[in-house]
Design a protein that fits this description.
The protein contains 19 helices and two strands. The chain starts with 9 loop residues before the first strand and ends with a strand. The mean pLDDT is 88. It has a single domain, classed as Up-down Bundle (Growth Hormone, Chain: A), CATH 1.20.1250. With 449 residues, the chain is an all-alpha fold. A two-stranded parallel sheet has the order 1-2. One of its GO terms (cellular component) is membrane. GO terms for molecular function: nitrate transmembrane transporter activity. It is found in: Membrane. It is a multi-pass membrane protein.
Length: 449
Amino acid sequence: MEIRNKANKIRLLNWKTPQMRAFHFSWFAFHICFFGWFGIAPLMAVVRDDLGLTKTQIGNTIIASVAITVIVRLAIGVLCDKIGPRRAYTWLLCLGSLPVMCIGLADSFESFFLARLAIGAIGASFVITQYHTSIMFAPNVVGTANATSAGWGNLGGGTTQIVMPLIFSGILMLGVNEALGWRLAMVVPGVVLFFTGIAYYFFTQDAPDGNFEDLRARGELPPASGENGMGASFATAAKDIRVWALFVVYAACFGVELTINNIAAIYFFDNFELTLASAGLIAGLFGLMNLFARTLGGVFSDLFARNAGLKGRVRWLFIAMLCEGVALMFFSQMHILALAIGIMLVFSLFVQMAEGATFGVVPFINQKALGAVAGIVGAGGNAGAVAAGFLFRTEALTYQEGLFYLGIAVIIASLCALVVRFSADVESEVNSAYQDAAGEHPTAAISLR
């Protein structure tokens, strides 16, 4: 895919260019998706009592919330290659809003499980966000653009933990009981999701020079058929071992973040005898680190690339992953609330920087099958969350033990980053493109104008 006129600088307050509109709408859409995807997580203590759920059943719903996303992420990436990120995002948001609003109809474990399974499809929004920013920004800032858009989107995991209990409390103040309160609370993110999807369609475009259908009509983009079809695009990406190495890496960083989003509130609620609101607030701090942590991962990726090219991006990814695993093991051993919060923030910093570092590498694996690569790697995050979910559904392991074993798994997975290598020709081509793009603004990647 040859996309021209990519932006070589991120101008945060400039909404006039299609690149910056795509940047802002993509992170905001992903942010709102977290309210639908994990809005129920900080309310699980209430749902558990209302539906009479066991620990194993809660674990199964956690797995369900991320399992379906694996499949949808694989499909959404190649769909972006075919119809463009604008239409793909619109359909995902509007259709995804329906199960979010309908989860309140659940009256048993089975119906609640199916609702969380359906809602999980919204998690594919991440792939579209990364796809859209990847084709809008030049090599000198694409790592920063990807990391920042995804990070501010992931920030929704933190704000959800804080805001949803407040929405729930506000509904209770109207005289509604808890059993009905959590059901009504979930209508709010569903409505916002729907209208965000409509706005995405009208205010963004697929690429800097127009939508995919227009580019193909002008002969500026290959047709989405034959050698460039969805099946061919996926097959090309699936044959590359580097894609699967990044699949494992992303499973061990974003998969871990999803797991923490699901269990953090109930973990602090049960282990430190906190109120639901206090547990949600502390759990929200983990996600709020996305305000800057994932961006840092992308910024460092771009900085490492300045001096060491693509090899530098890979080395930084390995370092971030290794530190994440060590920090997670320490977090699992904390029994004093203040220390647990402090180490959680350190762990959160590295897990999110590792995510940013991963998608600082993804755009350079295969630019002709970018959607398929992004989809497979993105699916790795949910596959990791599914695998981690089994550690927290069994009665035989405590949450602390599960987190410790998860930390060991992250350290092992970090070695997969070293499998990612590039040919001398690709290194030279990308380095040349980096220098050309950085020529005008060699130091400042983000500005306010």
